[in-house]
């Protein structure tokens, strides 16, 4: 029997750490519809919200992602909770804000007790696998203290943040001796050799390299080579390789329930694409940069410090943008083509009709906007992400093809999976909210603001330029219906009016006319900090049962608790 | 070789989870003094700050505790972070606020990754043992998920929150069938039988019972029996039994370094004492209750709800106070006599000269003050605790016998132990501050306010009377130099002027004249929430090393990180 058919059976509950279910907050007719059987959670890396045709890009056509949006809901104001991979992904996997799961930067270990997607689904018989990137870092200190061998079977799901690593593909490692072991342990390294790409580091020498005019190898790490085709055939490139493994998994699983996290490393740098994707777009199809007029950019010290970063300085040069962005677009186009292959498989084998599909990104890429590169700042090009959700059930027909402008967050994915699968929630831990009521057109109060966080303690140049101590380098975004408020340790806040200044070109953070608006958002920040879940080892149901012991005077209770009895 | 002689050796560091040391915040001459060898951390349960003669009690003389104060420092404004046992003790053992360690109430499991005293000391060769109470609760859900047998050796230190349980003595269990196994597994149960106290539950029938006029057994759970002597001989009572085990441990340990947590269950209820302590004090030695004049008590809904608790109603009756308080005083007197025994041992075997001694309590007891019983409210009788610290080193001579009025907290104990022992600190986790600079007369900026928290979600009567959801029952105290501000979920704050109203009889929380004072303290609350340590899986030193990778342009670094290279 399908385990999902009896999600509330005592056995199922006893085997899961989140075994107290409260009724869904929204009273929508969940009883009228079956639960979905599978979840396909697709994530791109460093894909900007506005680089998809369904999100309005003028030249980059992504018909397959658009097909998903046309049969699902496109969220036009979705935000990541972290602006770089590790923090953002751990929020996706735990359903909790960065300040709660504590992974403030890349390669920071997730506390072992943070429950992830696999912890919630696996006890109910749902195989929960990874194909692609997670940026998970083993928590070696905790394993050592708990006397758990990091290489043991016991440690594996912990090291993979709860996923079965069907394919772990975190992207190319720096070409440094420090990473030799990791490169050799990466399956893509061996796959390339099997395809005839020889060498000690074929990933770097073929997939991440182009050929110079004299046949010399030009590194894909250097953006000046972004216009050249990679030395790897498209059929053997990372995006195709990842998609192949996802299709293998889905075929292998057959009719058994699954949750697959298909996590593409692209269009994340290195910015180099295999033919023909390296040449699909030209400089005339590169959107103009979003920049304040000369002399009108914010004078905020943190923003100014980030403008000094190497990637910001380089991306401020037109020759860099014009060489990199067409390739960035080509890498996205390749992902869209591969998703077309995948969606055809799902439609042919019936999975399209019983699988909840989510398409999103972990964060964006400034690409020179605001004279910034990379994504370590809380403006829209970095924190704005695409989010498309397709619920195959009839109850979702009401919303198909629509755009939802409500403020949604990366942490909403896991609660959405749980409700769609008919599994118990865990309101004492989960900080995100299920999107199912939104997909089913059910009236529900929604959050008034979205939160994102970044901690530049890990970047010595900015921290030292700003002379901030290591525990005072936090930036926090409070994005409300109209405003974006950016709070900083030790510096004034920034404020942007997204209704009248959607490009965030006018910093109102020092304008006395907006004191009340800033105070209101400071109040939201307090409310959010106060509301972080800090009672994660006991469920609300357990607390309620415990409380009953204090019903003084009731004979049964008095037998247990005899405090203050005369 | 004594491991403390090389606390910075690579091996010592590799073996400890807190292996990055930063210089002490205060530049005092630590190099001029040896480190202490041992730590004796004495804690009473439910001992009010003002029930010791060195803290001003008019009738209760505690010469042995006073002896410690005379040769150490008495902190006159020490606060617990939680007002009941579990939360307060987990703050003591982790050096972190309740909102950080998450043990919001009794019997809530501590997250396995919260490091405790033993985790910091044991890797340096210091045997860290418990004699008495911790109120620790095994984290069974986490152990199950990590596939650790709760009964295994691997789990034991986790189940005992890092202590070696030389004697675990959490106090009598309720006389309910639910607790039969726990009663039978308690060593004191068997000790009593060995001394000839027969029965299935000798703890209840002898130690927690008195004899009626007709020889019938009267339960110590009933406060009406508090004036009668316990049926157990003083030599076999809990306080003597606990002290005996502590002396055994110290003798057993000889010259080897140790940290002993001597944790008396008394004067915690049941309020019943062995002869002669049941009759040492009379009703004329009971201090008058601290209560607002009729009609002048605060109308705050949460305060009013707590006044309805059974123990509050009973302790509001004079006959209850006059019967219970003399026995409460006798139980404290017995602890003082036993500490006299223990201190004599330390002075005879040399430990008095190489041991840091801390005496404190986990929280107080209202005893009818403010028409409240127990300790679940954030007024002085509950949150005010005694704290006496004796550092045997010459550098502390400057402060011996003095009183320090600075705002200190229970979470300061662990950082104090680490500095006194010369061990690495862990500023990325520890939220308390070392008291050593205060003991050594070293100039240092000190905290501006102390924090305490209570969560009444676990008490159904108050929660339901106030109609608050289970995650909106928090009370937070911000106690500054002059003021006490009490913030509530869903209700107005309370405010007391401790300079002009030390008894907290006049609630200024609704007085428009104090709006700015309340706003200032709301600002402190925000600052505190923002400052909670949320990056506990990576040290500041590791972050700093990581940051160095981003020194763009430095050849060695560039080999590792090649982001945004043109």
TrEMBL record, chains A, B:
Which CDD domains is this protein grouped with?
Answer: PMH
Membrane-spanning residues: none
Name the InterPro entries on file. Answer: Alkaline_phosphatase_core_sf, Sulfatase_N
Under the heading Gene3D superfamilies, the entry gives: Alkaline Phosphatase, subunit A
Composition bias of kind Polar residues appears in 12-22
Q: Which domain of life is it from?
A: Bacteria
List the keywords (alphabetical). Answer: Hydrolase, Metal-binding
Q: Which Pfam families match?
A: Sulfatase
Q: Does the keyword Cell membrane apply?
A: no
Q: Which residues form the Sulfatase N-terminal domain?
A: 37-422
Region annotation (Disordered) maps to 1-30
* Entry keyword Nucleotide-binding: no
**Protein name in the entry:** Arylsulfatase A
Q: Give the originating organism.
A: Pseudomonas brenneri
């Amino acid at each position: 029997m399908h385990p999902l058919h009896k999600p509330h059976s005592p056995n199922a509950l006893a085997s899961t750490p989140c075994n107290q279910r409260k009724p869904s907050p929204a009273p929508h007719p969940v009883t009228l519809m079956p639960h979905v059987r599978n979840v396909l959670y697709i994530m791109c890396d460093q894909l900007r919200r506005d680089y998809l045709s369904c999100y309005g890009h003028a030249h980059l056509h992504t018909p397959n992602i658009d097909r998903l949006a046309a049969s699902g809901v496109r969220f036009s104001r979705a935000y990541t909770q972290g602006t770089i991979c590790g923090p953002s992904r751990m929020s996706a996997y735990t359903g909790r804000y960065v300040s709660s799961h504590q992974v403030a930067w890349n390669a920071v270990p997730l506390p072992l007790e943070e429950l992830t997607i696999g912890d919630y689904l696996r006890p109910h018989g749902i195989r929960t696998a990874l194909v692609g990137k997670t940026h998970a870092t083993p928590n070696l200190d905790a394993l050592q203290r708990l006397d758990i061998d990091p290489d043991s079977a016991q440690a594996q799901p912990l090291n993979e943040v709860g996923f079965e690593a069907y394919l772990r593909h975190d992207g190319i490692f720096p070409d440094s001796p420090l990473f030799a072991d990791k490169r050799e342990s990466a399956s893509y390294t061996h796959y390339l050799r099997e395809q005839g790409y020889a060498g000690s580091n074929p990933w770097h020498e073929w997939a991440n390299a182009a050929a110079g005019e004299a046949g010399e190898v030009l590194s894909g790490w250097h953006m000046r080579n972004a216009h050249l085709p990679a030395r790897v055939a498209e059929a053997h490139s990372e995006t195709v390789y990842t998609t192949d493994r996802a299709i293998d998994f889905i075929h292998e699983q057959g009719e058994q329930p699954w949750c697959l996290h298909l996590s593409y490393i692209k269009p994340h740098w290195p910015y180099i694409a295999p033919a023909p994707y390296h040449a699909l777009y030209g400089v005339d199809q590169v959107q103009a940069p979003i920049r304040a007029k000369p002399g009108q950019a914010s004078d905020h010290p943190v923003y100014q410090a980030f403008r000094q970063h190497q990637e910001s300085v380089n991306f401020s040069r037109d020759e860099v943008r014009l060489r990199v962005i067409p390739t960035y677009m080509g890498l996205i186009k390749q992902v869209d083509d591969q998703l077309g292959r995948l969606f055809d498989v799902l439609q042919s084998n019936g999975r399209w009709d019983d699988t909840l599909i989510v398409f999103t990104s972990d964060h964006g890429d400034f690409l020179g906007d605001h004279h910034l590169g990379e994504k370590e700042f809380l403006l829209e090009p970095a924190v704005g992400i695409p989010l498309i959700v397709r619920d195959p059930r009839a109850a979702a027909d009401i919303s198909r093809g629509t755009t939802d402008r409500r403020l949604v967050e990366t942490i909403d994915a896991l609660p959405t999976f749980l409700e769609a699968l008919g599994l118990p929630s865990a309101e004492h831990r989960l900080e995100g909210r299920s999107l199912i009521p939104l997909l089913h057109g059910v009236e529900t109060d929604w959050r008034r603001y979205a939160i994102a966080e970044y901690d530049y303690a890990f970047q010595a140049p900015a921290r030292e330029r700003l002379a901030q101590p290591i525990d005072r380098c936090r930036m926090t975004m409070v994005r409300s219906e109209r405003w974006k408020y950016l709070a900083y340790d030790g510096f004034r806040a920034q404020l942007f009016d997204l209704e009248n200044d959607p490009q965030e070109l006018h910093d109102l953070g020092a304008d006395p006319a907006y004191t009340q608006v800033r105070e209101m958002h400071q109040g939201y920040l307090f409310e959010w900090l106060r509301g972080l879940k800090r009672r994660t080892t006991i469920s609300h149901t357990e607390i309620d049962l415990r409380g009953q012991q204090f019903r003084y005077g009731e004979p049964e209770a008095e037998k247990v608790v005899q405090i203050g009895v005369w």
